[in-house]
Specification:
single chain; 436 residues; 12 strands; 49% helix; RNA-binding
Length: 436
RNA sequence: GUCCCCGUCGUCUAGCGGUCUAGGAUCCCGGUCUUUCAAGCCGGAGGCGGGGGUUCGAAUCCCCCCGGGGACACCA
């Protein structure tokens, strides 16, 4: 298919939500797959509801998702053209003026057939439609009209959009017909539903693309997830951007609406965390540590590149989002750790001495690698005649402030000698005091 | 209400007349490993909405019903 040209045409009345993002993604993938052009067109003809902030947010969302556009337009910049075409329709007699607005005259009888690339042949009875406004009394064009003029002028070959636009298609077809223009091919993709099976919207909770970024999702994961909502390629679940471009086409798009299941998104995010380049992940982790208020940027920098990298590598094994990773990274910083409620049970008074012995042994180490740490601790334990199990959870909770963490020796090594020894001594002292 | 679309495990889906006692993924439940929790591995539960046809044969084709969703603006 040569010279494919498609567009994403959001109205800037709010943030970009995941449904819109999926439409943008399908268009983008289609364009990239066919080596065509992906156009971003802001449909801001409703001046009372459109905002600059929304436009910025939409662009930022698309950029974050990696959906780059080849051309950019603003519908309001083309208003003279819209008026001119409306005037032409008026003169031609297919449109008429009433109460200041220009209306399109709908055929009173017959039917209109849409040959949809996904849905197949869909027939509408013309009598179902009423005349509709193409130019408002304030002189601005309405959606169905501006859309047609722009899609034609911009040379769109395919219109890939949400199912909810299906019954706008006959109206647009009539306008193409009245103007003697060749309409593009239409492809209506199924909707994304919330858990209650109604069209996904803000009342379903987090639906803004940028909200997913804030919550610590990777764009790779969201793109992968969105692509699989309504599209498939055999049994494959995990797709890189390159694979999506290679495999995506309209024949893989399904016909039934899909429920947005966050549990699966979380799984995919975890998968992508595990696949992300460690240096890149370390940078991201640093950002989220600051975002979550775990530590300041200066404190993160003081940590050093290699520790941050190591932390990212360990933390991604058992956390599904960057936010969770950041929160689990608190123990890296030389701040007092709030202990979990279970700590009271884990830190038994008789552990005071072993904790002090371990602290002393660790303090004496020059090398603080996980291997050295392990050797030192096992040595102490052997002298004490205690199994590792007897102290593991206590040490873990004291060093990390959590009952769940990466491997004990890894975590000790990563926390650094100073932090570890101080925390063990403090805990040991408190346990002793409790006995008295 | 009218028009349009849709209907395979809870969810995302494979399936495009026989290879389906319906496959994968997620979620859930066991087991294994173990310093915790994950991950990994092993195992389990869970579905073709219903009824008629067509056919030697239907999850796959047709019809009806039921169910769900979407659209019915001088919003997009």
């Amino acid at each position: 298919m040569g010279n494919v040209r498609v567009r994403f045409a959001p109205s800037p009345t709010g943030y970009l939500h995941v449904g819109g993002a999926r439409t943008a993604l399908f268009n983008w993938l289609f364009a990239r797959h066919h080596k065509g052009a992906f156009i971003l067109r802001i449909e801001d003809t409703d001046r009372t509801r459109s905002t600059e902030e929304a436009i910025d947010q939409i662009k930022e969302s698309l950029r974050w998702l990696g959906l780059d556009w080849d051309e950019y337009y603003r519908q309001t910049d083309r208003i003279d053209r819209h008026r001119g075409v409306a005037q032409f329709l008026l003169e031609k007699g297919v449109a008429y003026e009433s109460e200041g607005a220009i209306w399109f005259r709908v055929p009173r009888s017959g039917s209109t057939v849409v040959e949809d690339l996904i849905l197949g042949r869909v027939e509408f009875s013309n009598s179902e439609f009423k005349d509709f406004v193409i130019l408002r009394s304030d002189g601005t064009p309405t959606y169905n009209f501006a859309c047609v003029v722009d899609d034609h002028d911009m040379g769109m070959t395919h219109v890939i959009r949400g199912d909810e636009h299906m019954n706008n298609t006959p109206k647009q077809l009539w306008i193409y017909g009245a103007l003697g223009w060749e309409p593009p091919a239409f492809a209506h993709i199924p909707l994304i539903l919330g858990p209650d099976r109604t069209k996904l919207s803000k009342r379903h909770g987090a639906v803004s693309v940028l909200e997913y970024r804030r919550r610590g999702f990777l764009p790779e994961a969201l793109v992968n997830f969105l692509a699989r909502l309504g599209w498939s390629h055999g049994d494959q679940e995990i797709f890189s951007r390159e694979e999506l471009i290679r495999y995506f086409d309209l024949d893989g798009v399904g016909t039934s609406a899909a429920v947005f299941d966050e549990a699966k998104l979380l799984w995919l995010n975890h998968e992508w965390l595990k696949r992300t380049d460690l240096d890149k992940l370390a940078d991201l982790l640093a950002e989220y540590i600051v975002q979550e208020g775990i530590a300041t940027r200066e404190e993160v920098e003081a940590l050093g590149r290699s520790r941050l990298r190591r932390a990212a590598g360990l933390l991604r094994e058992r956390n599904k989002t960057l936010v969770d990773m950041a929160r689990a990274a608190r123990f890296l910083f030389p701040r007092p750790l709030p202990l979990p409620p279970e700590a009271g049970e884990i830190l038994r008074p008789e552990l005071a001495a072993p904790l002090e012995r371990i602290a002393a042994a660790l303090e004496a180490l020059d090398d603080f690698s996980p291997e050295t740490v392990e050797r030192a601790i096992r040595e102490v334990l052997a002298e004490l005649g205690l199994p590792l199990k007897a102290v593991a959870q206590a040490v873990r909770v004291v060093v990390t402030g959590r009952t769940v963490s990466p491997g004990l020796f890894d975590v000790i090594s990563l926390a650094g000698k100073e932090n570890v020894v101080r925390r063990l001594r403090t805990a040991s002292r408190e346990l002793q005091d409790r006995v008295k």
